[in-house]
Amino acid sequence: xxxxxxxxxxxxxxxxxxxxxxxxxxxxxxxxxxxxxxxxxxxxxxxxxxxxxxxxxxxxxxxxxxxxxxxxxxxxxxxxxxxxxxxxxxxxxxxxxxxxxxxxxxxxxxxxxxxxxxxxxxxx
Amino acid sequence: xxxxxxxxxxxxxxxxxxxxxxxxxxxxxxxxxxxxxxxxxxxxxxxxxxxxxxxxxxxxxxxxxxxxxxxxxxxxxxxxxxxxxxxxxxxxxxxxxxxxxxxxxxxx
Lengths: 124, 108
Fold this sequence. Notes:
The complex is a heterodimer of chains A (124) and B (108).
Chain A: E1 3-7, E2 10-12, E3 18-25, E4 34-39, E5 45-51, E6 58-60, E7 68-73, E8 78-83, E9 92-98, E10 113-114, E11 118-122
Parallel strand pairs in A: 2-11
Antiparallel strand pairs in A: 1-3, 3-8, 4-5, 4-9, 5-6, 7-8, 9-10, 9-11
Chain B: E1 9-12, E2 18-23, E3 33-37, E4 44-47, E5 61-66, E6 69-74, E7 83-90, E8 97-99, E9 103-107
Parallel strand pairs in B: 1-9
Antiparallel strand pairs in B: 2-6, 3-4, 3-7, 5-6, 7-8, 7-9
């Protein structure tokens, strides 16, 4: 059974940092693109970042580029999101998802399994 | 354009059929994917590719596409279909994902 479990959310002051983690199990983690998606209160889903199987190919939404860093540890089957210079507008539930649809060589776009999410609140 | 446009809300009577749409230029090149999200829960994959359903989605939910528009249809809506539905695809670079604004489906 595919499982994705996020952790690391919490309350942080504006300008602060937080590191989210996502523990994967039930599939060969190193074979898949992975992604972070967030949903702010009262808003819709917003893509945050993608990372390729090799951990080298990384892509970011303009709203987080230069502040957030996505990374992965294939040996530990873990995905991370380092968030720096946090702003109030980064307040959201953050989801990690398996992303076969992020592969540029395909026409499909699916995120087929999602974690339950972790809440990040940026407030003073 | 990298935007995907969805109607904010639709309602459907119990047992009736409803179609929600997702429009965007990128849909001419990439498939749309649909997700269902219920309050307090994570999104779940609903429709992907040409019209593929994961095992957890009932066959009363289906997808289609024409030109720059993708559609999700619920045939014989049930109370448990009440949820927010999001489409996603990629932008023109192919490297960035984009989501539509979501459609809230209410079953009356």
